[in-house]
Structures are given as structure tokens and as C-alpha cells.
Design brief:
This protein is of the alpha+beta class. The protein has two domains: about 1-110, 3-Layer(aba) Sandwich (Rossmann fold), CATH 3.40.50; about 125-280, Tumour Suppressor Smad4 (Sandwich), CATH 2.60.200. Helix content is about 35%, strand content about 35%. It has ten helices and 16 strands. The chain has helices at about 15-25, 40-50, 65-75, 90-95, 100-110, 135-150, 155-165, 195-200, 205-210, 225-235, and strands spanning about 1-5, 30-35, 55-60, 80-85, 110-120, 125, 130-135, 170-175, 180-185, 190, 215-220, 245-250, 250-260, 260-265, 270-275, 275-290. Strands 1, 2, 3, 4, 5, 6, 8, 9, 13 and 16 form a ten-stranded mixed sheet that branches. Strands 12-11-10-7-14-15 form a six-stranded antiparallel sheet. β14 (about 260-265) and β15 form a beta hairpin. α2 (about 40-50) packs parallel to α3 and α6 packs across α7. The chain is elongated. It starts with a strand and ends in an 8-residue tail after the last strand. The relative contact order is 0.16.
């Protein structure tokens, strides 16, 4: 077993690291410890773990940490153990992995293995969501505010609101799926592979994910105040398809966008990528340790 800890997730890093190691040892595990200081180092350590002979790689951190580790493990047959230490932990919630640390450690050590779907864009794996345009810029602003004011749900929401009012150009988007070609004007595109994300944003589309497709959202090309009002309607569960956004289901899609180089987010991490952006769903590509199913009563 290898344990990868993100020192940037949560607080009291030394105490948390010691507690995790104590809990793993109490459950009979003696992991090799790898400590990352930032997202780039997480990816490097995950690639090293994927090349190792360890069969279980445990990640301790938030959704971005799990995304970086999953990118290295998808298709290898190694299983991912999840210790959720982030702000939202939507990936853990998707799989009913406990947010309590001791229970999460127990699941990582002795849980059952479940194969799950992952998304991919231009060869880059993501677990829950990928966005293009304004939303990735908002994520960058959120990280700046986290560094200044600390991590919390309130700071995350406030940073998103201020970013919506400051940035983001309307893009011309040509979207191609197996059902045809669509042309949109929008400030961002949201691609989802996790029903917990849809519940969080109060969006419909779970039926897409349950049918092994990606749920794709293209908001109308609203003004910045209009985008902010849309965010408030989403939080109030009042966003409506056709009025506020277009939605479609697809296992594969291609995005041609003007401008030709755009910011793209992957579960909290942001990169600049060249278009076209080619998305696809990789069915059953990642093995994850999840809570064991309760035994049926005789």
C-alpha cells in the first residue's frame, strides 16, 4: 500500500498525518508514505505509485487530490482508497465513502472494490466534472481567496460570485456528438460525471450519468449580472432548462471553440488547453475501495 497525502488539504498537517498513519497501522496496514506540497507534485507522486508494485494507492485530500491520483491509476487495475480531507468531498459522497476519518481508513483498507466510470478530455482524466471558460477562471480566483482567508464553503461561494462579475468572455462553441452538431454562444461549458455534483448545483441530468453518459450543460450567453442571478437560482433550486441553459447527454463529444486556447478545469485543478477538446466517458476504468455492502439477514 502507498499513501499519498496532500499537505495543502485541511489544517494541522503534522497532526493529521500522524493520525492517519496511526489509524492505518491499527487496521493492519503499513503504507509507504508520499507527501505532496502542491497539485503538480501530487501528479508526479501518483505516477510513481502507478508504476510501483503496490496494489492499493490511498489518497488523503480533497476532490482535486483524488482527481490527480485517479488520472494515474485509471486503466492500471490498481485500486484507489479515499480519505476525504477537502472542502466539498463530492467524489467520496458519490461512492458513500465515509467523511469520518477512522471509517474512511477502514474502507480504504478492507472495503470492497468497485469499478467506476471516469471522464477524459484530450487524454486528461477527471472524476466528477470538467469545465471550460468562465468557471475555471472562477476556480483560480477561489484558490487565491483560500490562500488569503482560509478554506470554507462560504469563501468558495463568495469567490465564485465575485469572479462571475469580473471575468469571462462569451465563446462561440461548436459541439459535435453522435447525434449531430450544435452551435452555441456561452461563457462556459460544464461537463459532469458525478450525480453528487448535479445535486449540489440543483441540476437535472442524473439520468444521463446513470445511463453511462456525460451530462453536458451550456448556459445561455448572459451578462455578468445575469450569470450571477443564474447562480442564485441554482442555489435556490429554480434554474430551468431552455431558459437558463441547454443540456444534453453524450458518451463522446468534441468542442471547437473560439478562442483556440481556453482554460479547462478538472475537479478543482485548472490548465490551459488547445482546442478542439475531445471528451469521452471511460466506462469502468477506475477501481475504488468503497464500503462493504451489508450482509443480508438470513
Amino acid at each position: 500500500m502507498i499513501l499519498i497525502i496532500n499537505r495543502g488539504a485541511g489544517h494541522n498537517h503534522d497532526a493529521m498525518q500522524g493520525r492517519i498513519l496511526d489509524l492505518l497501522q491499527a487496521h493492519g496496514a503499513a503504507p509507504r508514505l508520499l507527501v505532496a506540497r502542491d497539485g503538480a507534485e501530487i501528479a508526479e507522486l501518483a505516477a510513481e505509485a502507478a508504476r510501483s508494485d503496490a496494489s492499493v494507492i490511498v489518497g488523503a485530500g480533497g476532490d482535486g487530490t483524488m482527481d490527480a491520483i485517479a488520472a494515474a491509476l485509471a486503466g492500471t487495475g490498481k485500486s484507489l482508497g479515499v480519505l476525504p480531507l477537502g472542502t466539498f468531498n463530492l467524489f467520496a459522497k458519490r461512492l458513500s465513502i465515509p467523511l469520518d476519518l477512522e471509517a474512511a481508513v477502514r474502507t480504504a483498507v478492507s472495503g470492497q472494490i468497485r469499478a467506476i466510470n471516469v471522464g477524459e478530455v484530450n487524454g486528461r482524466i477527471f472524476l466528477s466534472r470538467s469545465s471550460v471558460g468562465l468557471y475555471p477562471l472562477a476556480l483560480r480566483h477561489r484558490e487565491q481567496m483560500f490562500r488569503r482567508f482560509g478554506r470554507s464553503r462560504m469563501i468558495a461561494l463568495l469567490s465564485g460570485a465575485t469572479a462571475l462579475l469580473r471575468w469571462g468572455n462569451v465563446m462561440t462553441i461548436r459541439l459535435t456528438t453522435d447525434t449531430g452538431e450544435h452551435v452555441f454562444r456561452s461563457r462556459f461549458v460544464f461537463v459532469c460525471n458525478n450525480p453528487e455534483e448535479l445535486d449540489y448545483f440543483h441540476l437535472r441530468g442524473r439520468e444521463c450519468i446513470d445511463a453511462d453518459n456525460l451530462a453536458v450543460y451550456l448556459p445561455q450567453p448572459l451578462s455578468p449580472p445575469g450569470i450571477l442571478r443564474l447562480g442564485l437560482r441554482m442555489l435556490a433550486r429554480k434554474a430551468e432548462e431552455t431558459q437558463d441553459f441547454e443540456m444534453l447527454c453524450a458518451r463522446e463529444l468534441r468542442l471547437e471553440i473560439d478562442p483556440p486556447r481556453v482554460p479547462v478545469s478538472f475537479d478543482g485543478e485548472v490548465e490551459m488547453m488547445e482546442v478542439p477538446l475531445c471528451y469521452r466517458l471511460r466506462v469502468g476504468a477506475l477501481q475504488v475501495r468503497v464500503p462493504a455492502a451489508p450482509r443480508a439477514r438470513l
